[in-house]
Amino acid sequence: MDEQNAVGTLYIVATPIGNSRDITERAREILTTADIIAAEDTRRSVVLLNKLGIRGNALSANHKFNEYGKARYFVEQLQQGKNVAVITDAGTPCISDPGNELIRAAVGSGIRVVGIPGCCAAVTALSISGFDLSTFLFYGFFPRETADRRRVLSMMRKGDTRTYAFYESPKRIMSAVEFFIEENAGIRLCLCNDMTKLHEMTFRGSPAEVREQLLRKGNYEKGEYAFIAEVCEEYMLREVEHISSPEALLVDCMVRHDCTARDAIRLLLGDENNTYSKNELYAAHLALKERFG
After folding, report:
1. More confident residue, 30 or 6
2. What is the mean pLDDT of residues 103-113?
3. Is the per-residue pLDDT at 205 higher than 90?
4. In 179-201, which positions are buried (b, 16+ CB within 10 angstroms) versus exposed (e)?
5. Using CA atoms, how far apart are residues 121 and 131, in angstroms rounded to an integer?
6. How far apart are the C-alpha atoms of 11 and 57, rounded to whole Å?
7. The pLDDT of residue 238
8. How far is 99 from 27, CA to CA, in rounded Å?
C-alpha cells in the first residue's frame, strides 16, 4: 500500500449495498492490507469481512455518536504510519453516513485521503430510474415532519433540477408516498427496495400508482429504500417577471384591506401569487415611508 514519508493513508472504501459479490478487487485488497478498519457498525462489518475472508485487521467503531472524538485517535494512528480504511454498513462512506469528520481531520493534518469507488445506493437508484439525469440533487433522508416535507417539495418545484434522490426508512416509506398524494404533487417516482439482493423490487409511476404497488406487495415495511423523484415539467414553478413593483403591491394591499403596512406585508407573504420576498417588501415599506412620511 502507498505510504508517504512514513505517514499512513486514509482510504474511503465503498462496500456492497446488498450483494457481497459487488465488492471490487481494489476494495478487497485495501481491506485486506489496512492496519485499521474504521466501521460504522463493527457487528455488521465483521459479517461482510468474514464473507470476504478478511481477518487480522483491527476493527474499530466509527459511528455518528463517536466520530468527533474518534477522529483524533485515527489521525494519531495515521501519523504513526498506519493505514486506515473507512467503511459504512453499506455503500459509500459519507453519503448520509459517518466519515466526514475523520476526513476533515486528516486533511487538516496533511494526511493523504484516497477514495476507493464502488457501490452507492443513491447513484444505483438514479441509474435505473429512467428519469432526466442531466442534473440531479441528492438530498439524503426524506424529512419526517410535514412542514419540512413541504419546504423540500417547494424547493423541488422552484429549482432548475427536475430529479431528486432520497433515502427512506421502510417504516416511513408509505408516509412519504402518501404525503405526495395529499399535496397533489406532479411528480413521478422510482422506489428501489433491497437493491442488489435476491428479492430486489422497483416501484414506478405517479405517487398514487406507487402506493397501490406497495399495497400489493404487502410486506413493504422491510428492506431499505432509495427513491428518486422527477418533477413533471408542468408542475415546476418558474420565476415570473414582476408586473407591479413591491411598493405598488404594498399600497394596493393596504387600500384593499384598510390595514397598516406591516399587516399588508403579512398578507402578501401569505399570498401564493406574491413573488416578492419579506426583505423586498420591508424595503418597499421603508422607501414609501421615506418618500411620503
Report:
1. 30
2. 95
3. yes
4. bbeeeebbbbbbbbbbbbeeeeb
5. 16
6. 14
7. 72
8. 17
* Pairing relationship of beta strands 201-205 and 187-193 according to DSSP bridges: antiparallel
The distance from CA 22 to its chain's CA centroid, rounded to whole angstroms, is 23
Burial of 288 (0-12, 13-18, 19+ CB in 10 A): middle
Grid-cell match 462512506, residue found: 93
Q: What is the pLDDT of residues 223-260, one digit of tens each?
A: 999 999 999 999 998 765 555 788 998 999 999 999 99
pLDDT at 273: 74
Dist CA 62 CA 102 (whole Å) = 9
Q: Which amino acid is at 215?
A: L
Using CA of residue 136, residue 137, residue 142, residue 143, what is the dihedral sign?
A: negative
Of the candidates 102, 155, 166, the one whose C-alpha atom is nearest the C-alpha of residue 131 is: 166
Place of cell 483491527: 58
From CA 44, how far away is CA 89, in angstroms rounded? 6
What value does the mean pLDDT take over residues 62-82?
Answer: 87
**Predicted confidence band of residue 65 (pLDDT cuts 50, 70, 90):** confident
> pLDDT tens for residues 168-192?
999 999 999 999 999 999 999 999 9
Query: Contacts by 43-50 with C-beta closer than 8 Å and gap 24+?
Result: 44/89, 45/87, 45/89, 48/15, 48/16, 48/20
Compute the Cα dihedral for 24, 25, 29, 30 and give only its sign. negative
Distance of CA 137 to the CA centre of its chain: 8
Maximum Cα–Cα distance across the chain: 81
